[in-house]
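Standup, Tuesday
Yesterday: got the pipeline producing structure tokens again.
Today: sanity-check two examples.
Blockers: none.

Example 1:
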Amino acid sequence: MVTKIGLTGGIGSGKSVISRLLRIMGIPVYDSDTEAKRIIATDHTVRRQLSALVGQDLFRNGELNRSLLAAYLFGKPDHAEGVNRIVHPRVKEDFVRWTSSYEGKKSLVAMEAAILLEAGFKSEVDFVVMVYAPPEVRIARAMKRDGSSREQVVARIHSQMSDELKRERADFVITNDGETPLIPQVLELISLLSENNHYLCSAKK
């Protein structure tokens, strides 16, 4: 039985650092953002549906017009919902297939998704792990990483689910504030989930 970890957190929280640690510790991680881009690039049904929604110029010579998609997404609040209704079900299906490939090989796998809760991916995982960092730390990280202005980063933070809501819905919180050691927290998480996995497997026998 494979226990599925859902790894989430807002912009600048440092989810990718935790993902790297999990991979180093032998836990496969499904990067939903990367895989969504792959699906958009290769899934003909998704491409056709997105073109019908956004416009026929969305793909030029087979390549995604990222600036057009971005302009559409931020054009109106409900535009992102329309795109997500097309892409997210495919990501869920892909994650299920990906997870099944580890049956009998791994006891733990993870999905990294910034909008795991908002996208309804919680139903696909067994435990939700939130990566937390104070707002000012998140802002500084995102500004340095993306070259964005403070105003742009703050606007993105406000567009995402609040940390308070994420914390309420999470089963485990990892603090990534640049001061609290990460490895002991990740090891504690793996230990807890491994014990839970053993209990669930025993209960099914």
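Example 2:
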Amino acid sequence: MKILLVEDDAALAAELAKALRAEGFALDLARDGLDAGHLGETEAYDAVVLDLGLPKRDGVAVLQGWRAAGRTMPVLILTARDGWSDKVAGFKAGADDYLVKPFRVEELVMRLRALVRRSQASGAPRIACGPLTYDPGLGTVEHHGLPLRLTGLEWRVLCCLILRKEAVVPRSQLIERVYDGDAEVDSNSIEVIITRLRRKIAPAAIETVRGHGYRLMPQGSL
């Protein structure tokens, strides 16, 4: 799962980023409202942790902009203000949950996971591509009806491909979706993951479209 963390407090941002990565989340970090607004409108995230007290543009305005643009990812807001009016403003803007500072990082992680599960399970049907089936609610992938054992990186790449089955997914998009924004990515890392997936599914399951990216093939090739 990929998370957008929006927090201008450098120490808190570092603490939260470390905890989320330890829990297996990939994440991008924004420290002001302008960067947050741009990332939320142009990138795909499974959820957002959004501080309300941001420089350049406040969190409520950022959230309103995302919802107006049709962005539906679940958003958990953070605020140092415990007044009811601030919470109401956040929910009216489209927030899904909130935490008041100070809070325990463990609670943030639990609430974030619950938001992602609820979002993925709400009306998201199972997606099939030949013998592959992806269940967004459970986050599982089956091959010929049996659970497919995948590493975290393999799961992220395969989910990106199956969500856009039969369409070419650019390599750059896979890198952005799979890795942290600050991660150093080896030039061959995606190719290595694709090779491992082909071994687990079928050699012809994932087509390399030279100069463009990769495509999960339909049933006839699996």
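Quick observation on example 2: The longest helix spans residues 105-121. The first strand starts at residue 2 and ends at 6.
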